[in-house]
Amino acid sequence: MNFLQPWMLAALPLALIPIIIHLINQRRYQSTQWAAMMFLLSANRMNRGYARIRQWLILALRTLVIAALIFAIGRPIASGVLGGSVAGAFTGRGPANTIVLLDRSPSMQSSSDGTSRTKLETGVSQIAEALQTIGTERLVLIESNAATPRELDAPADLLDLPEAGPSDASADLPTMLLAALDHINANQLGQTEVWICSDLRAHDWRADDGRWTSLRDAFVEFGRRIRFRLLAFSEVSSEGISNTVNLSVRVEEAMLEVGEEESAVVLSLKIDGDAESMNDSESVSQTVPLTLSLDESRSVVDVELRGGVGELTGHRVVLPRGVTRGHGSVSIPADLNPADNDFYFTFDVPPARRTVVVTEDEEVGRVLKLAAEITPDESLKSVAEVVSPREVNGISWEDVSLLLWHAGLPDTATSDASTAKMIRAFVNRGGRVVFFPPEGGSRLSTSGELFAMRWTTWNDQPDENAIRSWRGDADLLAATMAGTSLPVGRLRVQRYAGLEGEATSLATLADGKPLLSRVATPRGGVYFCSTTPLATDSSLAADGVVLYVMIQRALSDGAKSLGNTSNLEAGVANPAAASKWQRLSGRSEALSSENAFVAGVFEQRDEGRLIAINRSEPEDAATTVSDSQVDALFQGVPFVRVDREAGSGSSLVEEVWRAFLIVMLIAMIGEAWLCLPRQRPVENAGLPGGVSA
After folding, report:
1. pTM of the shown model
2. Which residues form the Aerotolerance regulator N-terminal domain (predicted)?
């Protein structure tokens, strides 16, 4: 137990005053042997045991009264496991250093009923109140957007700080913890408490990230000098009530369709909800009004939800004559979380799609060129050119959307350094590149290393139908808009090249080796396909569908970086550059310094580019890390978890001096009752003169 005025505990010896007075009274009288008195004492010997017990009870209650009064004046707090250290209980001060890790992701904006305080507001207010009560000498905030330490003057600053408000960017808990670790080491902090405020979303915690192991080992070395306090917000239970189900809306595609008489924006979008809370039945349907805003006009479309999911595909919105560029948004009625009720989009005349195929094999060049030039939409223009590796330096990269590389990897440490640099710059601009292994063992062995990836050796595949698994939920091999899966499992692979490096497998072979992998990059997309379209290697060219869809999707994503419009995830753009953008729609109260983290539509003043920023797709998934995962992540470090719900009014730290006053009152009543004179029964009260028989 901790005390806000622990110096009052120095008065606890005063609780011995009743005992001291009793002992003094015992010594005031001298015992003298007197025959008559000895006779009375002998007669009263039967009651001596009770009298002694009563005297000790009276002394104990009087002592308890004084002790309870001292404890009450010391203002004890029922901080439980969230209180300060043992030293803080006697010094009256909280931890010397406090670091608050604040999750500002969109999921933290949900509330219990859609109108009360959100998880973020509840967490910030409770942490500020707790730190104001128990005190702290130094307070540092690390919020999920910037993930850089910021020292605050007082806990109350958390309540008014814009950087502690809502955001549309995902959190990265390992990055935030790494920033806290660096701050502790750089400033050589002593006793430190790290408070984490989060709702445990799996996408934000990244429990499978390899950084957790090194972070845990680093914090274990501090011993009890660093303590972690997790303020976790559980998911809101809707109890099957339709008006409390949280829905999210997302525009899958916004494409401009230019005709001779009129132009239109063709929208494909999806409304998703918690199917379990909606009885998880395909027969249960619900109609949701969707508000579509396009520049100054608005319209409402009813979307039917079945089993918690509703889709609107190919919805045409006719534009005013002469308009071929603009922006808009879609929104659904308010529910538990306003952060996923809006989605912004931009549209413009799509630029011509240009693909460069780098290969020395005529057959590979012909297949890849054909797959890139045949577009799914006749209104789109797409061209492709085949060049040899020796002609790469002559490529004009300004209008290239996709690079298909079937040659040895250029190495930054060799004469190919300039080529590697150009490819990196192309990816950083937003372009896409797919690497295929070069034919021949000698070419593969002399291949360099790029994006920390390297080809190894060619391997034969005994089982031609060797595709074990692939990701059909996202990226190049995702299912179609109609929900139809790509026929990846029917592909035949006779030969594949080994691949070294850290990448995410989008398709794997029967032996667990990757067939298609993606390398994580800040912008653009880098893919490695471990086989080629040659008939001796695979059936990519013969079956055709998978290869064509892969190339067209990569080409479409790469073309988006060339147009006058962009659709970015919150937190991806450079914050310094984004601060100069002009906000056209979105939260007007947001700071310009946080443009990169706030959903809305912005315009680059210098280039006139329209940029739509929205939350990332994983933010719409309600998956959380389990309790066992959280315990494993903090295993070996002093860690305490407290669960709260959005809108909870209970405090993390509560004063309990009233309980001690109640104890004191009960002790005083008990002491008074024991001090009452014992009433003796009057025998033979009815005889004349009261003479006893």
Report:
1. 0.71
2. 1-76
